[in-house]
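The data are quoted verbatim here:
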Amino acid sequence: MLPAALSILLYFLSWAAPGYRLEANQETLDFVPVGVRYDPDPNPAIRRTDLENMRRLRFTVIASGRPGTEPAETLSRIDRLLARAQDASLTVQGSGVGTVRIDEATDADSVREAAWTRLAYGARAVIFEDWNTLQKNDTALGAAAAFADTLARNAALYVPLRRVESTGDRAFTIDGGQDKVEAHWLESPDALLLIAVNHAAEPTDVTLTFAAAIPEAIWQNMLTGNAVNFVAGPGGPVYTRNFAAREVMVLMIRKKWK
């Protein structure tokens, strides 16, 4: 006989036993998969309540059980699981799944820092590990839910984005930060996004100098809503900022300027 835990997991996944698998790419999905790793409760009522709570927090997928060693990971869409649909699963290449590990002491800054860093490195899905631990850490849960909500509210922006290298017209330098501040581009046909993260536990002054092809104005800080203007420099736009400890900055500009 199968072990009880495995039987429960197989039953749970039978909700999502599809006739096909949806490849998780930006041509087929209208959302960025953000969710939690979840071991299903054997009680169907509790299991459904868990999924409803996840959906309320704007999580869109679950990853079942422990992370595997396969080149791809199968996720399940929460909305379709709740609807008992037969096409709830989607597959993401293993390198495209960014995981954020949580324990009972993880604070909000750590969650935010890790999640945005995974996205900046090109993750196509972000999974918080795991649901049971998040239930014991309201602060971490709130930060994870805020990240999920940010991507869900502006899916049209985030879904088409791809990581691009910081070379050529996208080249920039970072002065200051003692190698604790990193920044990366994500780009789509319509928008350019800069994610910068201060990994230091203290504030730091940083100057970013961009290639001349990068516009000076007007950038939007996607986490605060504020407008940001770069300053013209001899070799290209310059932006100086005092980063707070563990701060994440997400700047976006539409590409109408091209």
Q: What stands out?
A: The longest helix spans residues 138-153. The radius of gyration is 20 Å. The chain has a mean pLDDT of 86.
